[in-house]
Amino acid sequence: MHKSSTWNLHLIAGLLLVVLLGIHMITTHLDLILTWFNIEKGKPGVEWANVIHRGQQISWMVFYIVFLGTALFHGLYGLRTIIFELGVKREKQKLITALFVIIWLGLFTIGTLAAITFRSVAMGA
Amino acid sequence: MGNINKYPNSLGIGGWAVKGRWGLERYLYTLHRITGLGILLYFLLHIFVTSSRVFGSDAWSALVLGILHHWTFQVGEYLVFAAFAFHALNGIRLILIEFGFIVGKAEEPVYPYRSSINVQRPASIIVLILAAIIAVIGGMRYFML
Fold this sequence. Notes:
The structure holds two protein chains of two kinds. Chain A is built from four helices and no strands. Chain A has helices at residues 5-28, 48-56, 58-85, 90-124. In chain A, helix 1 (5-28) crosses helix 3, helix 2 (48-56) packs across helix 4 and helix 3 packs antiparallel against helix 4. Chain A is elongated. Chain A starts with a helix and ends with a helix. Chain B is mainly α. In chain B, helix 3 (71-98) runs antiparallel to helix 4. Chain B is elongated and about 70 Å long. At the A-B interface, helix 1, helix 2, helix 3 and helix 4 of A face helix 1, helix 2, helix 3 and helix 4 of B.
């Protein structure tokens, strides 16, 4: 298998996501069983009080931004690998890579702006 | 860089599952890809859905009560949860194999040959059992509480 630094990054991102996505899953999808990260215990993690509580803390904002960037990279790199394996020619591979970089940048910007903007909304609540 | 023989991927997507007498690990490979694609699709939509919280509690509550609590979304969300459990655990297995763990020790090919599958297969079964346990716990959260 051809090894590259981006492939190694893909693996590192995967391991990081086990932790980051694991925390996210506990917070919002196992919220009624494991209540560690929610202030309104016994209520869903997507309950507004819990959403506000997380939004007020800078650690959660940083968490979401790192999580967003890592998940986008791991997911898009995985999709790119699958597409390339289907026999895309070398000239088109560069175009697809460029397109994926643009998608990563666009979605990372939208999600990051939302995380930063929401902190000021949460602080005013 | 030396010459690398390149062969066309003649099996295509069909080769993921039905073009050979694949072993368990080959089906885990297919499932890893399907769950990865499913999680990615959900995640891309998730970015826009969760970004709507910047519009305040009314917009968020309408979204949560209107869409997120609907049974079809709950089932879909549970499938993503179960997919995550499998994808994460199988990903750890793949990384361990990639770096030379759980593949067995190299030895001379002396008859009777010993297959490294005897080392890899238990790891595959452990992944499936742990993923099933986490999926059941998640199912309790989604459908019983």
